[in-house]
Design a protein that fits this description.
Helices cover about 65% and strands about 10% of the residues. The chain is α/β, with parallel strands linked by helices. It is elongated and about 120 Å long. Bound molecules: adenosine-5'-triphosphate and magnesium ion.
Length: about 625
Amino acid sequence: MSGDFVPADPLALRVAARSGSKSMGRLWGLVRSSLVLVWSSGKRLLSALVAVQILSALALAATVLTIQQVLSGILDAQDGGRVMGDVLVPVIVLASLSGVAAVAGAVQGQLQRLLGESVARTMWGKVLGVATGVGLRFFESPDFYNRLNRVQTSAMLRPHQVTTGLLSMAGALAACVGLGVTLVTISPILLPLVVIAGIPLLITSSRESRIEFEFSVRQTPAVRLRGYFTVLQSGRDEAKEVRAFGLPAWLAARFDDLYATYLRDLRAHVIRRGLLSLVGQLGAAVVLGGTLIALVALIDRGDIGVAEAGAAIVAIRLLATQVQALFRGAQSIFESGLFLDDLRQFLALGEIAVEEDEGQEPPERFEMIRAEDVRFRYPGAPRDALQGVDIELRAGEVVALVGENGSGKTTLAKLLAGLYQPDGGRVTWDGHDVAAFRPSSLRQRIAVVFQDFVRYALPATDNIALGRIDRPVDPLRVRAAATAAGADSKLEGLPHGYDTILSRMFTGGTDLSGGEWQRVALARSFYRDAPLLILDEPSSALDPRAEHELFATLRDALRDRTALFISHRFSTVRGADRIYVLHEGEIVEQGTHDELVSRDGRYAELFRLQSQLQIHGEPAAP
Ligand SMILES: Nc1ncnc2c1ncn2[C@@H]1O[C@H](COP(=O)(O)OP(=O)(O)OP(=O)(O)O)[C@@H](O)[C@H]1O
Ligand SMILES: [Mg+2]
């Protein structure tokens, strides 16, 4: 598999941010892709927003023209004309224009809200698509979580922000052109001065964007940790233990500490950003002041009349606001651009996920599955979790895997389930390397019950039918699977039978015991109807009778399927066709129960230990 996750360390991102700032071409590419995205998320909404924006710009231009008319009306009146007649109409127009502007503003706000949610929907789809599509090993990487976290916020906001930034830039630009033309007609040298006033803002605002992005990258790990402490304090699964161990005060203190640190950093950041912004604004104000002084000089020299000067002041004031809006829009786009680049790199991980659907179709059934000299190490781990592992699973067999904690049983199960690829050696189906098979199809041939299976807060039927989501739910098969796993009578007896939600989180729901949950998880794997079943400690929470019944009927439930099961209980292991003993990532023994006991090795020792424990642990008979 290609596409190893490139760690997104803050330094690399900073470098990327810096070089990104130089590449306007790339920025333009991001702007374009944002526009395409927003357009595809809400064509009508975006069109309506553009229309409203144009309307606002027109209203603004008309406002300036009308103000001029009002002014000239008043000046005429000073020269002896009639004020009411000349001024009344423009004043009414002015009032209507401000009404139009107000309505347009309100409509714009609501449209933006709707468009924002539409974009968020599209982006959630993409981001979660990547999150569920990437290989399991990504979930071993803190860098992946950092980026996922950052992207979850930026994906929702930024594309939309770029679009609104562009729209407001377009509006400001239109207004600038109108006002600029007016100003040039009054005095040609005033316009360049107003434009120059924007340059300090342009410089400082691009710097502001960069420090904002860097701040976000720097803070992500701490923000995530804080998020984790929120979960610990508010999560349902955590609630009982947090209370039982009296953790609330400690958790609250840790959370508060993290927040305090964040606030301190934020304060420093805000001051830094504020100072930069201040420098920009001051620069702009100085240039603007110079413009006004130039204006006074022009009046002084008699180059410009009083009425024109009045109009020029209004125009300069409005123009300065619009120029600022223009640069603010550019800044927000630039800032979003850095986040969007981050997002783009994250979404590119999804291209790896596409490989899920590439490769040969694996056979429906197999005669023999083998792990051949398999070696595996978790990313960043100091030692191999598995080394030189050879095992065989023949069709129809029940094979057991035993070993002490941390010996590598679950890891081997994940490799056989196609969730990880071995670093050395290979897994074969009838001699074919599974690496050549289409991963999604391979997994369809395998059912797994993990040690830490998921308890879906969904109806019982769904909890079982999720085992085979590519087919319509078959209630009869759901019941058959539940019966085989010994869960049928319990589920049937629930308030709404199989429709009962298995969680107290939702109205009408209930919860099950640990053993009952385990049976539901087993039923899910039976329902999958796959030729290979991998059960990682499927009976650890079952009572002795349930466990006995499960294994007495396991062969029936399996029919001609093959099962690999992992267990610490030798009572269940002894019936297996073959037993493998794992020790520190290596297979150290294999054979049937009797063979292994008579060999008197590690298996025999563990077996004796457990039998003694059971004899001594048993309560005296009454
Ligand atoms: N995600 C991981 N990242 C790094 N190391 C891991 C990871 N998961 C497990 N390990 C390590 O790999 C080794 C094998 O773990 P594995 O979960 O396969 O053991 P196991 O035999 O299933 O143990 P148990 O009986 O406790 O379930 C252990 O040393 C463990 O600490
Ligand atoms: Mg395990």
